[in-house]
Write a structure and sequence with these properties.
217 residues, mainly alpha, 9 helices, 0% strand, elongated
Length: 217
Amino acid sequence: MAGILVALWIEDWRQARIDRATEIEYLSRLTIDVDQDLIDLENQIAHTPMREEQALAVLDFLDSERAADRSVLQAFNQAGWIAFFRFNRSTMDDLLSTGNLSLLGDKSLVRQLNNYYRSGDFLREFDDAKKLWIWEGYRRSLDHHIPSRLFTLDPDEEERLAAVGWDALRGDRDVRAGLEHVMTVAAVERRHLERVREAANELGSAVADRHARLTGS
């Protein structure tokens, strides 16, 4: 009986060591994912004021009598750019698909992980709104006045600018409404991305603390 108990204890001890090593590996991978999220979030957040600035530049042009130039054409185009943030979640998906999420010994960290990745639900829904308001709203209205080829081809500048009906464009309320949507979308997106960035920093710290406790480093 004593031999059996010792054998069971040794097996439990061996499995515990394996589980701890596996958890440490997952924590290292989570650190890489969250660090990349932070890089991507910074890039995405930096993208939003550019869209607002270009939209404001276009509205200023529409309310003026200035002649259009290359910078005006660029502003019309860049105001309608959108970007999409995607979590780097390969490690989390692995933890869920293998059932190894239970290997993380810190339950508060598990809750933090779940909450962090669930925060992407709003962004996915908001992506649909961005497509509707900007791609199907602003850009579709803009296409009536500025053919998209004028943004991508490089004809003579005077020829390019002459191909646009600027008076009709200035009077198009849909274009103006689209620009207002551009700025609204950018402001809402930036606020939410900043909250996600804060959560990413907090998660990164929690993962690092757990890793340090397990490794003694």
